[in-house]
Amino acid sequence: MSTAGPVDVPAAFAAAYGAHGADEGRWIGELPRLAAEFLERWSLRPDGPAAHGMASLVLPVRRPGGSPAVLRLQQVRPETAGVAAGLRAWRGDGAVLLLDHDEASGTQLLERLDAARPLSAVADDDTALELLAALAARLTAVPAPPGLRRLGDIAAAMLAEAPRAAPSLADPDERRLLRDCAASVGALLDEPGDRLLHWDLHDGNVLGGEREPWLVIDPEPLAGDPGFELLPAIDQRWDAVLAGADAGRTVLRRFDLLTDALGLDRARAAGWTLGRVLQNALWDVEDGRTALEPTQVAIATTLLRHRSG
Known about the structure:
This protein has helices at 11-18, 22-41, 83-90, 125-140, 151-165, 172-188, 231-234, 238-243, 247-262, 266-286, 294-308, and strands spanning 45-46, 51-52, 56-62, 68-74, 98-102, 107-111, 114-118, 149-150, 195-197, 206-208, 214-216, 222-224. It is of the alpha+beta class. It starts with 10 loop residues before the first helix and ends with a helix.
């Protein structure tokens, strides 16, 4: 499957993203026209083949003065509606610079980073995690701007859904784990936090740059407690974790490194990390699954045991 036009949409992206539903399919069909519109509007010229992530098309371009940039086309969804506000609040401090933005379509013009140099390519796990933690500390030091999704609202919705979701899990231990995660979130609901969170901060969403050695990309911003930010970094490179002697020890080492770097209270951070496990579990149940991801079970079990030990 390929979408023809002034800008070619990679067939793999068109097939994978368009399969999600009718709205996504229509958006894929509009991408060549949309790309051509913003190339003309912002006086850009293509500067290489299009690339893509899971939910966006990225086109390398040159601006009128010749400087490199990327045109990023992404369907507007609740979780991406605050991208421009988040990037503006960070002002390029640890994050990619937003050069221009169209609110109606969600189209972004961004500083160009080195897609061939992701932080995930750094071989040493501790080094990569320390670099990621330092970026996370800088990003979460910024207060969330008005109008973003709020962790308090997300957490309240999860707590309302958890009792209905738990019976769908086949394993009684997993049902108990889901309820334990919900109880952890319930204990923190009155203080959901007000920091600017990336939400999907892992080593695949950090690229090499020229302004700084490493810069964060692809936020799905929300306002909340930085403890809700840790899980993607804890479960990155999980195959390597499983190859080690003690996955639980690795989870705790990563958790301790992150909480130290961000200056977090460990009990609160553990509770909000369990909240992320709960969020993933609820999505799994919504998708019809009757078992939790083993990675999530391992992390939640470790943190619950550590917190009570």
